[in-house]
Design brief:
about 0% strand
Length: about 80
C-alpha cells in the first residue's frame, strides 16, 4: 500500500517522495496547505475506492494515520 500511497502523494505534489515513511507529518512536506490536503484526499479515495468521513479527513496528520484509515476501510492497493 505504501507504494500506491506514495504515488498519490507524488502525483498531487508533482514531485518524487523519497523520504516517505509512516512517521512523515503532512505539515513537514514543502508546499503543504489545505488545498493540497483536500486534493490528496480525493486522489486517495479514488485510488483505493473508499470514502473518508469528515472526521477522518481532519484527523489525518501523518502518512501512518492515512494508512490506518485506508486499511480500516478495507482499501487495497
Amino acid at each position: 500500500m505504501n507504494e500506491a500511497l506514495r504515488g498519490c502523494f507524488s502525483d498531487v505534489l508533482r514531485r518524487p517522495m523519497p523520504d516517505f515513511t509512516e512517521d512523515l507529518a503532512f505539515a513537514e512536506i514543502p508546499g503543504w496547505d489545505s488545498v493540497v490536503h483536500l486534493t490528496l484526499l480525493l486522489a486517495v479515495e479514488s485510488r483505493f475506492g473508499i470514502a473518508f468521513s469528515s472526521a477522518e479527513m481532519v484527523s489525518m496528520k501523518r502518512v501512518g494515520d492515512m494508512t490506518a484509515v485506508i486499511k480500516a476501510h478495507g482499501g487495497t492497493p
